[in-house]
Amino acid sequence: MAGIGFVLRRLSRQDNLLGLMQAYVYSALISTGPWMFTILSLGSITFLAGKFTSIDVLSEFRRVIIYNFAFSLVFSAPIFMVVTRYLADAIYAKDVKRTPGLLIGGTLLMFGTQLPPVLIFYFGYANINPALAFAATINFLLISEIWLISVFVTALKDYKTVTLAFGLGMGFSALSSAFLVETLGLIGLLTSFSLGLCIIIALLVARILAEYPYRFEKPFDFIQYFPRYWEVAAAGVTYNSASWVDKWIMWFAPEGDHSPTGLFLYPNYDSAMFLAYLSIVPSMAMFIMSVETSFFEAYLRFYRDIQNKAPLSQIRRNHKAILDSLIKSARNFLVIQGSVSVICILLASKIFLSMGINFMQISIFRFGVLGSFFQVLTLFVNIVLSYFDCRSAYLKLQGFFLVSNGVFTVLFLMGGFRFYGMGFFFASVATFVVSASYMMYYLLRLPYHTFVTTNASVNSD
Amino acid sequence: MNSDICLILEGTYPYVSGGVSGWTHELIKEQPDKKFSLFCLVPPGSLKKLKHKYEVPPNVVEIVNVELQHLPLYKKSISKLERRRLMKRLHEPLMKLQTNASLEDLEHLLGLLKASGKKLGRETLTDSKEAFGLLCDMYEEALPTSSFLDYFWSWRALLGGLFSVLTCDYPQAACYHSLCTGYAGLFMARVSLETKRPTLLAEHGIYTNERRIEIGTAEWLDDQQSLNLNVDLRATRKSLRDFWIDSFIGYSRLAYQVAEWSITLYEGNKELQLDDGADPKYLKVIPNGIDFETYSKIPRKSEGRPTVGFIGRVVPIKDLKTLIRACGFLRESVPDVQVWIMGPTEEDAEYYEECLDLVQHGGLEEVVRFLGKVNIKEYLGQIDVLVLTSLSEAQPLVILEAGGVGVPSVATDVGSCSELIFGSPTEDPPIGPGGAICPLASPTAVAEALAKLLNDRKVYERCSRAIKERVDRYYRKELQHQAYREMYEQLIAQPKVDTLARMGARMPVED
Question: B151 contacts in A (CB within 8 Å)?
Answer without folding.
Answer: 312
